[in-house]
Amino acid sequence: MPTSRRFFLRNGALALAGTTAIPSFLVRSVLGQTAVTPKRRLIVIFQRGAADGLNIVVPWREKNYYSMRPSIAIPQNQVLNLDGFFGLHPSLAAFKPLYDQGHLAVVHAVGSPDMTRSHFDAQDYMESGTPGVKSTRDGWLNRALQAEDLRCHCDHSQFRAVALGADVPLTLAGKVPAIALNNINNFTVGARGPAPSPAASAFEAMYAGSGDRIFHAAGEETFDAVQMLRAANPAQYAPAPGVEYPKSEFGNNMRQIAQLLKADLGVEAAFTDVAGWDTHQNQGGVNGQLANRLLDFSVSIAAFWRDMGDDAENITLVTMSEFGRTAHENGTGGTDHGHANVMFVLGGQIKGGKIYGRWPGLENHQLNQGRDLALTTDYRQVLGEILSNNLGATNLGLVFPGAEVTPNRFLRLT
């Protein structure tokens, strides 16, 4: 059995990903080892499906915004005003205090410079950090962790890079091992605790019956890692007083990220995604499909922020989506695939309470290809600045090959 294999436990839901050989954390004992909590942690949230940035952070002073969106525009008297020109969709009310307190920053007219309107290509390009290059097989966040290793030869926990989901996403794929956890509370492998799931039992039998010495050792260390997770007992976690997460998949993922961070397992980077942003039909305005998604999105993130308490000072959270949507609504009360979009950056070190990026305008002659919000900020500049200050990744040429991600182009978010 090749040692470069990925192991997925979809139902019991631990995935260990290594792309070249047995990961380094699997060749050293983890039992009895104290995880060192890094000073700063990065949380990445991917909005899959192309979120409508123009109805998320509304340019309510743009006259053309209302003429282009007669049935789905957010009325001026219902926009949550931010700076006299932009405002939040009313379903993002949970974000308003974070913005007012200076923790939440908005970057508008941002995204990938590649012009594809394909969800699959655009997501791959954004996650790989190499827009237009289909051959990239690793992710920008994994390369950022590699860049950190070049600067600091530090010991890292096996929970250094974690994704909430069944599989390790492209964002975290690469040489640095990453773990995918689908559900902490239902995870059972090995002899202790409740009966293991069928998938867990199959995995245990697979590694136990293997004659490959290296693979067998890797299996044993995998279960040691599981025991470390159990020892931290995040399943018994209770949020901070007054904090309640939505009973949704995304709300549960944000809760579990908080569990892992508070368990001091050494998480440096965490990833989760949330689907449902592809609003071709019946998008709605103040109410409806997009509004419901935004409510869950914002309340989940705000709950996470409050839940982390003083630890939030050392956390940065960033959101992104593969591209935006057309400036004009379509004939079915929705919007089609567009170009530039909006990103949120939330953190204790972030200079929030401000809209970043150059606004290109929404007059017809200012639109990209006559239909989309034009792009003025490459999303890699935003990520590059966060990585420089969050992970100490100074070798941004490694993280974003072929791009000129340099400090003189940063937006000064931190």
Give the topology.
Blueprint: E1 7-8, E2 14-17, E3 41-47, H1 53-56, E4 57-58, H2 63-68, E5 80-81, E6 87-88, H3 96-100, E7 104-111, H4 119-128, H5 140-151, E8 161-164, E9 178-181, H6 198-208, H7 213-232, H8 249-262, E10 269-274, H9 289-308, E11 315-321, E12 341-347, E13 354-356, E14 377-378, H10 379-390, H11 396-399
Helix pairs in contact: 8-9
Structure description:
With 414 residues, the protein is α/β, with parallel strands linked by helices. The chain has a single domain, classed as 3-Layer(aba) Sandwich (Alkaline Phosphatase, subunit A). 29% of the residues lie in helices and 14% in strands. It has helices at 53-56, 63-68, 96-100, 119-128, 140-151, 198-208, 213-232, 249-262, 289-308, 379-390, 396-399, and strands at 7-8, 14-17, 41-47, 57-58, 80-81, 87-88, 104-111, 161-164, 178-181, 269-274, 315-321, 341-347, 354-356, 377-378. The strands form 2 sheets. Strands 1, 2, 3, 7, 8, 9, 10, 11, 12, 13 and 14 form an 11-stranded mixed beta sheet that branches. A hairpin with a 5-residue loop joins strand 1 (7-8) and strand 2. It is globular and about 60 Å long. The chain starts with 6 loop residues before the first strand and ends in a 15-residue tail after the last helix.
